[in-house]
């Protein structure tokens, strides 16, 4: 990476100060055929398999802004690694090297989808599951003024209130 090219890789830096926490966040990881490739959120969520789960069946997958890989899969996972390393250092006195990639982070975030497929929660085609727009009580609807109303009434007590019209203005 860039830091290694500058002579500031983790081996050099940690030799100078073994208490340092050295975090690296890349798109595709430190090794493999894409390690040195440039990319964007869309590339990362595609390679993680998560893009294939977004949107309606028989339509182009929906773009989730750049939140899944760049922010949640990348920054959040890396920041969590830093926090855990700080905690470890408070006991051991030793720094850590954190390697995280946006593809791996997005795949981790999407693991819920894959793990729940066997439970029936996410076993239908894209756009027909409980949490991906397939349930009328957990979806969005266009209003008469061209805006949208989000409905999230999964639990029975909230669904009951929805049917009474208590959430609709």
From TrEMBL:
<dbReference type="InterPro" id="IPR050509">
    <property type="entry name" value="CoA-transferase_III"/>
</dbReference>
<comment type="similarity">
    <text>Belongs to the CoA-transferase III family.</text>
</comment>
<dbReference type="InterPro" id="IPR023606">
    <property type="entry name" value="CoA-Trfase_III_dom_1_sf"/>
</dbReference>
<protein>
    <recommendedName>
        <fullName>Alpha-methylacyl-CoA racemase</fullName>
    </recommendedName>
</protein>
<dbReference type="InterPro" id="IPR003673">
    <property type="entry name" value="CoA-Trfase_fam_III"/>
</dbReference>
<dbReference type="GO" id="GO:0008206">
    <property type="term" value="P:bile acid metabolic process"/>
</dbReference>
<dbReference type="GO" id="GO:0008111">
    <property type="term" value="F:alpha-methylacyl-CoA racemase activity"/>
</dbReference>
<dbReference type="GO" id="GO:0005739">
    <property type="term" value="C:mitochondrion"/>
</dbReference>
<dbReference type="Pfam" id="PF02515">
    <property type="entry name" value="CoA_transf_3"/>
</dbReference>
<dbReference type="InterPro" id="IPR044855">
    <property type="entry name" value="CoA-Trfase_III_dom3_sf"/>
</dbReference>
């Amino acid at each position: 990476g860039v830091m290694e090219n500058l002579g500031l890789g983790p081996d050099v830096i940690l030799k100078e100060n073994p208490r340092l926490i050295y975090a690296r966040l890349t798109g595709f990881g430190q090794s493999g055929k894409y390690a040195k490739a440039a990319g964007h959120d869309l590339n990362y969520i595609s390679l993680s398999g998560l893009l294939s789960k977004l949107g309606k069946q028989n339509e182009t997958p929906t773009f989730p802004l750049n939140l899944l890989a760049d922010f949640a899969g990348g920054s959040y996972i890396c920041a969590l690694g830093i926090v855990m390393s700080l905690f470890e250092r408070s006991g051991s006195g030793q720094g850590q090297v954190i390697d995280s990639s946006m593809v791996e982070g997005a795949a981790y975030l999407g693991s819920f989808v894959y793990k729940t497929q066997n439970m029936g929660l996410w076993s239908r085609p894209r756009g027909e599951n409980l949490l991906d727009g397939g349930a009328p009580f957990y979806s969005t609807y266009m209003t008469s003024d061209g805006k949208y109303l989000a409905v999230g009434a999964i639990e029975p007590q909230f669904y009951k209130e929805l049917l009474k019209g208590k959430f609709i203005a």
